[in-house]
Specification:
Order of helices and strands of chain A: EHEHEHHEHHHEHEHEHEHEHEHHEEEE
Largest sheet of chain A: 10 strands, mixed
Largest sheet of chain B: none
Structural class of chain A: alpha/beta
CATH topology of chain B: Non-ribosomal Peptide Synthetase Peptidyl Carrier Protein, Chain A
Oligomer: heterodimer
CATH architecture of the largest domain in chain A: 3-Layer(aba) Sandwich
Helix content of chain B: 55-70%
Largest interface: A-B, 10 and 11 residues
Number of domains of chain A: 2
Number of helices of chain B: 4
Strand content of chain B: under 5%
């Protein structure tokens, strides 16, 4: 087995900020990125949900008009996050054949797909743009990043609903450990704040209806939680072998010590109430990291703010950590960002890594009355994590029974 | 209402600029879409469809391959208006 895997670059565009620094600062300050949607189509379609976590900085303020024209909004966010991460890593010199991309989306180019169908209905097939297919395909974001940084070591897309972003990062570990490549740009994105997905998620009663108080709508672990809040944006991490990072004198944020992916084979949308598959993913990731459950200091939970999901995840954590669970600082950052679906695992991996790097667990906002069925030690204001070497995990679960977990450790040579 | 050659060239330059970012002043009659302006086939089809909208003409798919230069396209559009 090769040496350690480390993270050397971060990028993000989220409902809290247009980059990692502003997002992390807003998260630690307890801000909410959720707001009422002002678009005409909200009233036009009488949508039952009228709010979401929209990207704080519009992609059109960052990219050229031609880039925006040729990329679905999901790819636009992905490219913004990946470019930030690449620059943050010092734009490493690496042979293109030794550079790979593992970049996820939950849904893909849904704006492009539905806009093209509108055009077909209104104006006929000749007006459907020739770029429609490359823009709507779910591997579009990964391909856009791969072309931008000249990655020729393989460009792949994990698609596992809301576990996608974390699965992509776990896949990056495998690519690096195999010795096939030296650097992987990994993460995930989503841009699905469109009336159709809003209507569809509302139809399955997965999303919150707290239309009169958007900033308080995403409230993981609170007794009044009533569903998740859609968010949009992207996160990206530059992940490389320790050997490669040290040889080029890179800044190292943390060790990406392990990851695991499991599946429930239980129900297409409902989580296994026992949390067995999720527990196996946590245990598998910790085993790869060489860490005992009792050594974990911090968990960035999946915690979407749905009534059943939050409890199922708690049950899985009890299985893994037992009595040690009370000593672990748990953060549910979707309270502030909303749920970025395929991008969620990416930005939450960044939060988990920064908790290790900055030694502080971010707050879980909106926790006014903690559900007595979920007696976790939930962090409600930014909490210092101490001076010792830290271990933290990020959980993501997705429709389809997907479970993905990654582990970060304080880096030491 | 017919567009003059100069108006078609200016309008086409705007469409090319919008699609590709190429400066409008670079879109000149003798320039080849592929060799000089580096426009790929997907962009070319988008430009054709947008030109049809803008100038109210029909540019058949089999005609597009004959539009080598900007001048070819301008001349085709001017005569197609008639």
């Amino acid at each position: 087995m090769a040496g350690k895997i480390v993270v050397t670059g971060l990028g993000a565009t989220t409902p809290l900020g247009g980059d990692v620094e502003s997002t992390w600062k807003a998260l630690l300050a307890g801000e909410s990125g959720i707001s009422t949607l002002e678009q005409d189509w909200v009233a036009q379609y009488e949508l039952p949900v009228t709010f979401a976590g929209q990207a704080k900085v519009k992609a059109s303020e960052v990219l050229t008009p031609q880039e925006c024209k040729r990329l679905d909004p999901s790819s636009q966010f992905a490219l913004i996050a990946a470019r930030q991460a690449w620059q943050d890593a010092g734009a490493p010199e690496v042979a293109p054949e030794r550079l790979a991309v593992e970049y996820a989306t939950g849904i893909g180019g849904v704006w492009t797909l539905l806009d093209a169908f509108d055009t077909l209905k209104e104006k006929g097939p000749r007006r459907v743009l020739p770029m429609t297919v490359p823009m709507l395909m779910p591997n579009g974001p990964a391909a856009a990043i791969g072309m931008d940084i000249a990655a020729r070591g393989g460009v792949r897309t994990a698609v596992s609903a809301c576990a996608s972003g974390t699965e992509a990062i776990a896949n990056a570990i495998d690519r690096l450990r195999s010795g096939e490549v030296d650097i992987v740009v990994a993460g995930g994105c989503e841009a699905a704040i469109h009336p159709m997905p809003i209507a569809a998620f509302a139809a399955m009663h997965a999303t919150s209806r707290k239309n009169d108080n958007p900033a308080a709508a995403s409230r993981p672990y609170d007794v009044d939680r009533d569903g998740f809040v859609m968010g949009e944006g992207a996160g990206a991490l530059v992940i490389e072998t320790e050997e490669h990072a040290l040889a080029r004198g890179a800044k190292i944020y943390a060790e990406l010590a392990g990851g695991d992916v499991t599946s429930d084979a239980y129900h297409i949308t409902a989580p296994d109430p026992e949390g067995s598959g999720a527990a196996r993913a946590v245990l598998g990731a910790l085993a790869e990291a060489g860490v005992k459950p009792s050594e974990v200091n911090h968990i960035n939970a999946h915690a979407t703010s749905t009534p059943v999901g939050d409890i199922a995840e708690y049950n899985s954590l009890v299985k893994v950590f037992g009595d040690d669970l009370g000593k672990i600082a748990v953060s549910a950052t979707k309270a502030a960002t909303g749920h970025l679906l395929g991008g969620a695992g990416a930005i939450e991996a960044i939060f988990t890594l920064l908790a290790v790097y900055d030694r502080v667990a971010p707050p879980t906002i909106n926790l006014d009355n903690q559900d007595p069925a979920i007696p976790l030690d939930v962090v409600t204001t930014a909490r210092p994590l101490g001076d010792q070497p830290l271990v933290a995990i990020s959980n993501s679960f997705g429709f389809g029974g997907h479970n993905a977990v990654v582990v970060f450790k304080t880096y030491s040579k | 209402m017919a567009f003059s050659q100069a108006e078609v060239l200016a309008g086409l330059a705007d469409i090319v600029n919008d699609e590709t970012g190429i400066a409008t002043e670079s879109v000149q009659l003798e320039k080849s879409f592929t060799d000089d302006l580096d426009i790929d086939s997907i962009s070319m089809m988008t430009i054709v469809v947008n030109a049809e909208d803008k100038f109210g003409v029909k540019i058949p798919d089999e005609e597009v391959k004959n539009l080598i230069t900007v001048g070819d396209a301008v001349n085709f559009i001017v005569s197609a208006q008639a």
